[in-house]
Amino acid sequence: MFKKILVPVDGSATSWKALETAEKLAQTFKGELLVVHVVQTYNSAELYVNGLEAGTLSAENNQITMIGSRILETAKAKLQGFTGKADFALEVGHPADRIVEVAKEKGVTDIVIGSRGLSGIAEFFLGSVSSKVSQYAAVPVLIVK
After folding, report:
1. Full-model pTM
2. Residue by residue, what is the 3-state secondary structure of 36-73?
3. Which of 28-32, 35-39, 61-65 has the least mean pLDDT?
4. How many CB atoms lie within 10 A of CB 126?
5. Residue 125: its pLDDT value, please?
6. First to last CA, the chain
């Protein structure tokens, strides 16, 4: 356990706590980290549903991706003292689905995730990302509060 830890970050306080916890576990067990931020961009279906113009859609997606890149840069800065291997990835898709898929694709041994992200009221109605990840992941999931 804790040889290859996936840590999803979204900029929330609990995701930073999860990153800190994963860093300690990786250092203790000589593991490596895979820090992931998942952006959920608009797709062409939103053009019709929300009446968005293609230019607006593209600009919004670029902004979302830029924010995701900044979150990963913050994660890198927070791991400055980490002496093990750490990789960083910006993924696109539904957060819970992509986290579970990336865990399979990359052969991680564990997932360390914050209990609550930035999704707010949608989380209440749809179920939290951490809950879905813990339900569908094929590896142990540590949820950090």
Report:
1. 0.84
2. EEEECCCCHHHHHHHCCCHHHHHHHHHHHHHHHHHHHH
3. 61-65
4. 12
5. 43
6. 21
